[in-house]
Write a structure and sequence with these properties.
CATH class of the largest domain: Alpha Beta
Helix content: 40-55%
Shape: globular
CATH topology of the largest domain: BirA Bifunctional Protein, domain 2
Structural class: alpha+beta
Number of domains: 2
Bound molecules: adenosine-5'-triphosphate, magnesium ion
Length: about 475
């Protein structure tokens, strides 16, 4: 089954169970101070759970563009190094807003996976919330009893608050959950260590695919839990992981979601995925990051120096540097992958193909700007490394990290990443001090500067309003990076 067929089958399954198929919300969130990017399918329905908005359809299903690079759910460091965490991923979901609850949610999930998708039952594990006395939360007996009718008891695992009590962020709707995990190892490996022992243990082949959340509480800003006005179901399944399981692969990157991108990157770089670990990580990082970047830009979020825009810029610079260092890509290359994505997402996220030219242009401009300073920045880092090694030290000072940021456009996390690769660390507190000092300096300076410069300094975010504005932003970029 192709990934596109898998997505359709999921949506149609729930459509046949009276769910309304709705569109993904944008990945970039504009009006929620608690969240910068959509990190789960439930975000767009938050107000239904809280009872702030009248429910249009009690049952809904969709595939949601998610990004997990900041806040409570931040997977950035894992991406590319493992084979199943992405920055941007699709979360397939079905919801009940005060309609059905645990029984239907669990039975349908099991039916879809084992009957429709024909995943082997003896490779699946399920988990239920074990409870947490410190918050007066009970063991989820109800979910356990439902599962017991479907799977042998030895395949049901008790999970703690970290894994089995889902929370969107520091505050907001939350509740106990039941998850489904799959063991993709060989029979031999399974003989050696039972899959049950590897669930929730970061094993690349024993992975979580689906989370069924039973929304019952609202976490308030003071940390306390309050009952929601009604009980709801919120499920989220990692689409790329589901494709891996159904297509019989051992890595998300071996599914047809990623192979066209890897092939194109191979053609562009003259290298081949699957030969050298260092290059493979770079391949994975790049084909992952381009999805996050392209879909953010098509959502109207340009790379910038603030907030969401800076997150996108950081992801882009990270990808460019992986290509530069490990795949010998010294010219802009990321933008060349956009056409593959635009085609792939044509039916599901048509906003990308509709703005393909713009997206390519923005990305190419941003790559070009960073490549102008990247080489010198890397040289500077080499000199710093040599200096530290002479002094038998391992910490890059805040002042130096700030110089790399300010002069060469190296986001702090990029310098930290390169430092880690070389067995070094960074004085982050020192960096923040330098940053604060510069902000003070520029506050007075900004008054005399042009309007463009003020945009950069004053913390206003940049979003796509039209081509003219885009040209202006490109100029700011150039200005900032020379
Ligand atoms: P994990 O434990 O693997 O980090 P999670 O428990 O953080 O996943 P949930 O918040 O429960 O994930 O999200 C629901 C589903 O979304 C997961 O079961 C998984 O299939 C998928 N998922 C979560 N994070 C990612 C990611 N970074 N990349 C791809 N899929 C993901
Ligand atoms: Mg996670
Ligand atoms: Mg988990
Ligand atoms: Mg989970």
């Amino acid at each position: 089954m192709t990934s596109s067929e898998i997505r359709k089958k999921f949506l149609n399954f729930f459509k046949n169970k009276q769910h309304k198929i709705v569109a993904s919300a944008p990945m970039v969130i504009k009006n929620d101070p608690t969240l910068m990017f959509t990190n789960a399918g439930m975000n767009q329905f938050k107000d239904y759970f809280l009872g702030n908005q009248e429910v249009a359809y009690p049952r809904v299903t969709d595939t949601q563009k998610c990004l997990r690079v900041s806040g409570k759910h931040n997977d950035l460091e894992e991406v590319g190094h493992d084979t199943y965490h992405h920055t941007m991923f699709e979360m397939l979901g079905n919801w009940s807003f005060g309609d059905y609850f645990k029984l239907e949610a669990i039975e349908w999930a099991w039916e879809l996976l084992t009957v429709e998708f024909k995943l082997p039952k003896d490779r699946l594990y399920v988990s239920v919330f074990e409870g947490d006395p410190s918050e007066n939360l009970a063991f989820d007996q109800e979910a356990f009893d439902i599962w017991k009718k479907l799977v042998p008891e030895e395949r049901i695992i008790n999970g703690n608050k970290k894994d089995n009590f889902w929370e969107m962020g520091e505050s907001g709707p939350c509740g106990p959950c039941s998850e489904i995990h799959i063991d993709l190892r060989s029979d031999e490996e399974i003989q050696q260590i039972p899959g049950k022992d590897l669930v929730n243990n970061d094993h690349p082949l024993v992975v979580e695919i689906w989370n069924l959340v039973f929304m019952q509480y609202n976490r308030l800003a003071d940390g306390s839990l309050k009952n929601l006005p009604a009980k709801h179901v919120d499920t989220g399944m990692g689409f790329e992981r589901l494709c891996m399981a159904i297509q019989g692969k051992k890595s998300n990157y071996d599914t047809d979601v990623f192979t066209p991108l890897l092939d194109e990157l191979g053609a562009v770089s003259g290298k081949k995925y699957g030969k050298l670990l260092k290059e493979d990580i770079a391949f994975r990082v790049i084909v992952d990051h381009i999805r996050a970047i392209a879909l953010s830009v098509s959502d109207g979020q340009l790379p910038s120096n603030n907030k969401a825009g800076y997150v996108i810029r950081r992801i882009l610079r990270r990808a460019v540097r992986y290509g530069y260092t490990f795949l010998d890509l010294k010219e802009p290359f990321l933008y060349k992958l956009v056409k593959i994505l635009a085609k792939q997402f044509e039916e599901v996220f048509p906003e990308l193909i509709a703005q393909q030219d713009l997206v390519e242009k923005v990305i190419k401009e941003e790559e070009t700007a960073f490549l102008r300073t990247l080489e010198n920045g890397l040289k500077r880092l080499e000199a710093i490394k040599a200096d530290l090694s002479r002094k038998k030290e391992t910490v890059i000072s805040g002042a130096v990290a700030f110089e790399l940021y300010d002069t060469y456009g190296f986001p702090l996390d990029l310098t930290a990443l390169i430092a880690r690769e070389n067995g070094l660390s960074i004085d982050e507190a020192g960096f923040q001090q330098e940053m604060a000092r510069q902000k003070d300096r520029s506050k007075s300076a900004a008054k005399m500067e042009t309007g463009d410069w003020e945009i950069v300094q004053e913390g206003a975010d940049v979003e796509f309003i039209g081509y003219e504005q885009l040209e202006a932003e490109a100029k700011i970029l150039r200005y900032r990076n020379v």
